[in-house]
Design a protein that fits this description.
- Residues 1-25 have low confidence and may be disordered.
- By secondary structure, the protein is mostly beta strands.
- It is built from 2 helices and 23 strands.
Length: 348
């Protein structure tokens, strides 16, 4: 999301259709981000790079429900205080340092009910930003743990009192979320916790507090029924493409190809139950490599850099008893769930 007032916040990207699939469920061809046709490589191929096309058959399935319990504040009252002094974890249960620490608190005024906001966040609905009537933010430097709503800014300047009173007018039927973020400027990016609030004439409290329980998340992950992705043993020159070979992400939302911002590969101990520990796959890896996608809809795994373990990526070794995952992430989405996670196995 981008900061602003009125008119919502712009989206980026559109859904693309899926490519025909082979009998094993894996796509055979796709159109790369540059417009070139990319053909999936078969085991035994000596052509480099070895091409892997993302497909629903190879993807995990993830189910979740996000609930945003709201607190009540008096209407038409600009003497509201936003407080984050009690916040220590994000809504996935990680310490705030997981995404880089608390850098910004954003307030979004929604033109739809909170239940609809929660649904759209849960599904990474591409129309979410269009439902934001206004937004404002308060940058955090680590020394302040609360701020009056009148201290929040939009486009770098103060929000006029008459605008605040308009937003807090119960006749407008607006809904509100206060979001703690690890990103210092872009509203809706690296969100760590969300506290919803609404207007109630009977309310007496004028404080909206972000706490470790402000957002409720119920989830389940399944990495056991997918078709593993086969790659040559000890091969690093592997091009992963997701331009037109996949239409639906891991939680059944639209797979918008240009919203993938990161690629990761992780090696895990065989004793780890990845279904139960899925929210911690970026923490529990024995080794983890990551690559940033700045533009385009494919990425070569040889360009990843080590994040856990320190060693360069040398491919998936033959006969490895460890578990290996390949993930595609949208780090700009409010919902942090990876869009694509598949198991990697070496070719027979």
């Amino acid at each position: 999301m981008t900061p602003g007032t009125g008119g919502g916040m712009p989206t980026d990207g559109s859904m693309t259709g899926g490519a025909p699939t082979a009998s094993g469920g894996a796509p055979t061809t796709g159109t790369g981000g540059s417009g070139t046709t990319i053909t999936a490589s078969a085991c035994g191929s000596t052509t480099l790079p070895f091409n892997v096309l993302a497909d629903e058959a190879n993807n995990m399935t993830f189910q979740s429900t996000i609930v945003l319990p709201d607190v009540k504040v008096p209407p038409s009252n600009i003497n509201l205080t936003m407080d984050w002094s009690a916040l220590t974890k994000d809504f996935l249960g990680h310490d705030l340092a997981f995404q880089g620490g608390l850098k910004n608190v954003a307030l979004v005024v929604w033109s739809v009910p909170l239940t609809e906001v929660a649904r759209m966040i849960n599904e990474s609905d591409k129309d979410l930003e269009s439902k934001a009537h206004a937004s404002m933010q308060f940058p955090i430097d680590g020394t302040v743990t609360s701020a009056p709503i009148t201290s929040f800014t939009s486009f770098g300047g103060p929000v006029q009192e008459e605008l605040l009173l308009e937003y807090l007018d119960p006749a407008k039927n607006f809904a509100f979320t206060l979001m703690a973020q690890a990103h210092p400027t872009t509203i809706g990016r690296n969100v760590q916790m969300i506290q919803a609030f609404s207007l109630d004439a009977a309310a007496t409290s004028t404080t909206v507090a972000l706490t470790d329980t402000s957002t409720e998340l119920d989830w389940s992950a399944n990495l056991d029924t997918l078709t593993p992705t086969q790659v040559p043993a000890a091969q690093t020159d592997i091009l992963v493409d997701w331009f037109s070979s996949i239409a639906v992400n891991s939680y059944n939302g639209a797979f918008v190809n240009n919203q993938i911002t990161e690629v990761l590969v992780g090696r895990y101990d065989p004793s780890i139950n990845l279904n139960d520990e899925f929210l911690d796959i970026e923490l529990n890896a024995t080794e983890l490599w990551r690559g940033t996608v700045s533009i385009g809809s494919n990425f070569n795994l040889k360009d990843m850099t080590p994040e856990i373990g320190g060693a360069a990526f040398t491919g998936v070794p033959a006969g490895s008893g460890d578990q290996w995952l390949l993930g595609l992430l949208c780090t700009t989405c409010v919902n942090p769930t990876p869009w694509y996670v598949t198991r990697l196995e070496t070719c027979p």
